[in-house]
Design brief:
It contains seven helices and nine strands; from the N terminus they run αβαβαββαβαβαβββα. With 242 residues, the chain is α/β, with parallel strands linked by helices. It has two domains: 130 residues, Periplasmic binding protein-like II (D-Maltodextrin-Binding Protein, domain 2, 3-Layer(aba) Sandwich), CATH 3.40.190.10; 108 residues, Periplasmic binding protein-like II (D-Maltodextrin-Binding Protein, domain 2, 3-Layer(aba) Sandwich), CATH 3.40.190. α2 packs across α7. The longest helix has 23 residues. The N and C termini lie far apart (61 Å).
Amino acid sequence: AFVGKARAILRDTELAVEAARRASRGQEGQLAIGFTSSAAFHPFVTGVMREMRERAPAIKLSLEEASTGELIEAVEADRLDAAFVRSPSERLDNLTITHLLDEEMLVALPDHHPRARKDTRRRISLASLADEPLILYRRPTGPGLYDSIIAACRAAGFSPKVAQEATRMVSTLSLVAAGLGISIVPESMARLETAGVSYLRLDRAAGLVAPLALARKKGPAGGTLGRLLGIVTRRVKDRAGV
């Protein structure tokens, strides 16, 4: 009986050691990841999540959708291990914000808008939107994008007429569909195919892009977070042709 118990203890110990090794290599464990509503639709983010599932199926993923500001707070409070965000406008000393890519911004306008029919094949100037009621997401929700849009409008020679502010980018598109104004959103939002909304491209002189970044706590990253960072880093290099 003693020998049997000893063997069972040894077997359990070996299993525990092997489990610890797998966890240290990022093969199993838990990982809490956040993303903004627009980031969730970007092929880069969906590709990363798909690869995580395929390469490390034993990792239990916990996913949370929120605004950039809310996600930053969650990472700072250790409720999230990492988050795909739109680059925050302020510097954050306790976080590492890794720029991943810049995404083109599109003009979202109601289907019945005259420009939705006649300007579909050419880029339009930002200045041509000066008289349009603009729908934005509230600044605390996405300060980086909000500030970029306001600054671009002023650089184009006008102060935007902000008609509505929404708490989520998806809500912004709903307000556009209702005919309350136009908006400027990351290109990935067009993947939603929101009924009643058309999209136009801005000319490149507007200089408007939506940066996508990964936020995490400063310091070494091992285990499951290290596995995520490895996939992200390789995919960024692949996009750059490195």
